[in-house]
Amino acid sequence: MTEVIDAWGQHPTLRHAQDPMFDSLRRWTKTPTPTKELPVATTVGLMDRAGVDRMLISAWEAPRNTMISNDEVAGFVAEAPDRLVGVGSVNIAHPMEAVREIRRCVTELGFKAIRVLPWLWEVPPTDRRFYPVYAACVDMRVPFCTQIGHTGPLMPSEVGRPLYLDQVALDFPELTIVGGHIGYPWTEEAVAVATKHENVYIDTSAYTVGRYPPELVRFLKRHGTDKVLFGTNYPMMPPEQALKGFDALGLDDRQAQQFLSGNAKRVFGL
């Protein structure tokens, strides 16, 4: 099987895993609230079981607290540097601190992207507070990753409309944008924006292969072969579950290679 790179994961801290905002996800998946820190070796073991070679793991910066810090992510990566790749996050309420932190993430911690989730802040990605982040990402030559589509936690989904990224891409044509979680129920919007803009991509995190919307599969097989990245949303979705039924997609060798690793290598400079 071709190399597999997971474009969207997180190695959670206990405070992240226990946050009440994820109660709705635990209800859907029928999983208990964790009581112990997750060892990095467990994450790597689950990657091995699924045949995932590398996973991008992100910090989580929320308005009320830091759920996974950039330094904690750097520590996790240091335990498995050949398997885990760091993605930073910043507090958009403090723009200059955010800009300085992005520079630190890239130059000192070696991170390959920055991720901020609009629903955590309850504002769309066109909000002015995001714009210094975009400028810093362009300056540091790293992609900006974000969530598109509805939210699993009980937070507003409207800010996840993929069409918001159209304006961002128009304002920052040099910015590479990766929209995670497929964009459902607005997947056609996600496909339209990724088709229109050279530097906009989609990743499939949080969805099993069998739940990929038909419009995304068509895009992947046709003019979007170089625009879609595989992702899991680990630990919410284990890699093995995310890849189950992969052959049923009916991808040819090039389509599979680009989807599973080629696009991620190019986008994140791996």
TrEMBL record:
Pfam families: Amidohydro_2 (PF04909)
Amidohydrolase-related domain residues: 69-270
GO molecular function, one term: carboxy-lyase activity
Keywords carried by this UniProt record: Lyase
Family matches, as PANTHER family: 2-AMINO-3-CARBOXYLMUCONATE-6-SEMIALDEHYDE DECARBOXYLASE, CATALYTIC_ HYDROLASE
Name listed for the protein in its UniProt record: Amidohydrolase-related domain-containing protein
Naturally occurring in which organism (per UniProt): Falsiruegeria mediterranea M17
